[in-house]
Amino acid sequence: MDSITVSDLRKYYGQVKAVDGLSFSVPQGEIFGMLGPNGAGKTTTVETIVGLIGRDGGDVAVMGIDPAQDPVGVKARIGVQLQTAAMFPRLAVREVIRLYASFYPKNVDEDEVIALVGLQEKANVQTRNLSGGQLQRLSVALAIVSDGDIIFLDEPTTGLDPQARRGLWDVINRMRGRGKTIFLTTHYMDEAEKLCDRVAVVDRGKIIALDSPQALINENFQEKAIEFNQPALTADRNLSGLPGVTMVQVEDDLIILYSSEVPKTIAALMEYSQKAGATVDDLTVRTATLEDVFLKLTGRRIRE
Amino acid sequence: MKMLWQLITANVKDMMRDRMSMFWFLAFPIVFILLFGAVFSGNGADQSYSIGLAVEDKGPVGSGIRKAFESVPSFELHQGSKETELAALKQGKRILVVEVPGKVQATIATGKPAEISIYYDPGRAATAQALISAAREILSEVERRATGAPRLFIAKPIKVEVKQLKNIDYLLPGILAMALMQLGLFGALGFVSLRERKIIRRLGATPVPKSLVLWSEILVRLAMAVVQAVSIVLIGHLAYGVTVVGNWPAVLGLVLLGALVFISLGYFLISFTKTSESAQGLIQLVQFPMMFLSGIFFPIEIMPRFLKPVIRAIPLSYLGDALRNVMVGLPTAFGIWTDVAILGGWLLVTAILAVRLFRWE
């Protein structure tokens, strides 16, 4: 049985279609990512699935239960981390975890949870004295203390430094190791690429692609990306005619040429730019990423 | 049950560690009692009245009047010229100035009544009126002696031993009522802060019923109301010897009823506001006039007539009135069952409105 099945989910706020017909299912034990810019409808999707807000259309089943019919039944079998990181300000980390543990029919031992998120040294510190990163880890701790079958994480690493983010990725992988299903939202490409088994790319309330990160890249790009800065060439249509170039993307002063024959393209680019009197001094060649996929599918970058 | 108990524990810990709010809830009423007690420590029965006497008549009539006034023990008599005494009246140092003009003796000799002016401060009209009657009485006594008219009545004062009621007896139940009001109203701010910081929303993603959060708050506030009542009664007893005459269950019942009324009113008020700042402002706006118009500091009888309808609308008036009756045995202004019924009505109405208008997020 799939842990989560969603079909044609809709949620409107007046004229705004926050979620506009999403369908997907998440098998048990998978790390499923929702990738998209802010305002794409990721948080609304999470809040609808966990029964925090009602929906305007479609079907949702969490462990076979409809959150609109039995919200408490759903909530008792999942763990949720929301973007709101605030806690009772004068309770210590351990006390908040104990409080949340009391809400669930079964729960993970509080010391184990504290160790999992690496807050052992802060266990007796009041939450108002925690740093942003520590609060974020506490917020994840409150999702996993439930020992639910599915753990929902809404932008779990936003605002964390790179080291803390890797630390959280470890926590998420360990939870998967315990047989949990993980549903997470993110606007970090690398997070989706490295952590998720499958990624749903969302924009304006719709899924525009859904597959494993590598498959998404392979489906969209056999090419590599050549990036360079040259304001004089941003409006030059001749670039797309250079040998090997399959697509050109321009963002401000940054030009990205997607090429299936990188050496030929670079040689031709050098010659052309010199003739045009706008030399390219510095360029980068890299393999395509999910960022490129998003850019190709929407014409925009994910973080704007 | 486990959830409720954990929520209560969390609530109590969160509150106990907030020194500022602990000060307002527990220390503030006590400081209030000590301050007010010190200011109003004078016992009403031993009060003396400052009276100015300007006698310009040098004859026997003048000295007769002077002697008559000097013989009243509760008068704090000041003698001087008309000008100095009137100046003292204007500065509020006298309640009354009695002027005996120089030509009194001469006027009487012509067979006409002589005019004796009594100046008073209209700002202290109630006291002044009583003293003017006393002054009239003294003057007619002087007149009776002078004319030798026979007495018809002899007023004979007889002492009756009564329980000495001091100002603090009046104030203490009022301060308890005020403390309960502030506990209930300002206690609602805790929920506003949880709501504003989206902690309530976060709890909504757990299986805990959100109403349980409110019940835990209400139970903690009721427990605090009892703690407040005990500490206020205790400090009143230790510092000023105020004894509770009523029966304890009645006092406890009133304390809980009063606390519930203001807890309910607090939750009702915060449904109109979004932020902590606006909630604080609104609650101040409501509690401040209530504090002064409810008669918890001064008797309702001395308030101006046009304020009476306001006073009669305020729940704090009835809580103060009932507590004064049950705690120290003062007579009620409205009747104890009226007090209880009106408080119950306020509770019912605000609770219904709070439930209907409540904002969880």
CA(first)-CA(last) distance of chain A: 38 Å
Strand order of the largest sheet of chain B: 2-1-3-4
Strand fraction of chain B equals 5-15%
CATH evolutionary superfamily of the largest domain in chain A: P-loop containing nucleotide triphosphate hydrolases
Helix % of chain B is 55-70%
What's the architecture of the largest domain in chain A in CATH terms? 3-Layer(aba) Sandwich
SSE order of chain A, one letter for each helix or strand: EEEHEHEHHHEHEHEEHEEEHEH
Q: How many discrete domains of chain B?
A: 2
Question: What is the β-strand count of chain B?
Answer: 4
CATH C-level of the largest domain in chain A = Alpha Beta
Number of helices of chain A: 10
The largest inter-chain interface, given as chain pair and residues per side, is:
A-B, 26 and 24 residues
The proportion of residues in beta strands of chain A is: 25-35%
Which stretches of chain A of 5+ consecutive residues score pLDDT under 50? none
Q: What is the approximate shape of chain B?
A: elongated
Order of helices and strands of chain B: HHEHEHEHEHHHHHHHHH
The profile of the biggest β sheet of chain B is: 4 strands, mixed
Question: How would you describe what is shown here?
Answer:
The complex is a heterodimer of chains A (304) and B (361). Chain A has helices spanning 42-49, 71-75, 93-101, 110-116, 132-144, 162-177, 189-195, 213-220, 262-275, 290-298; strands at residues 2-13, 16-27, 31-35, 57-62, 78-81, 150-154, 181-186, 198-203, 206-211, 224-229, 245-251, 254-259, 283-287. Chain A is of the alpha/beta class and 304 residues long. Chain A folds into 2 domains: 2-217, P-loop containing nucleotide triphosphate hydrolases (Rossmann fold), CATH 3.40.50.300; 222-287, 2-Layer Sandwich (Alpha-Beta Plaits), CATH 3.30.70. In chain A, the strands form 3 sheets. A 6-stranded mixed sheet of chain A has the order 5-6-7-3-8-9, sandwiched between helices. Chain A has a 4-stranded antiparallel sheet with strand order 11-12-10-13, with helices on one face. In chain A, α3 (93-101) crosses α4 and α8 packs across α10 (290-298). The longest helix of chain A has 16 residues, at 162-177. Chain B is mainly alpha-helical. Chain B has 2 domains: 7-41 and 166-357, no CATH class; 49-147, abc type-2 transporter like domain (abc type-2 transporter like fold). Chain B is 65% helix and 6% strand. Chain B is built from 14 helices and 4 strands. A 4-stranded mixed sheet of chain B has the order 2-1-3-4, sandwiched between helices. In chain B, α3 links the parallel β1 (49-55) and β2 (75-79). The longest helix of chain B is centred in the middle third of the chain and has 31 residues, at 210-240. Chain B is elongated. The model of chain B has no long low-confidence stretch (mean pLDDT 86). The A-B interface holds A 50, 52, 72, 75-76, 80, 82, 84, 86-91, 95-96, 98-100, 102-105, 126, 142, 146 and B 2-3, 5-7, 9-10, 13-15, 17-18, 194, 197-199, 201-202, 204-209.
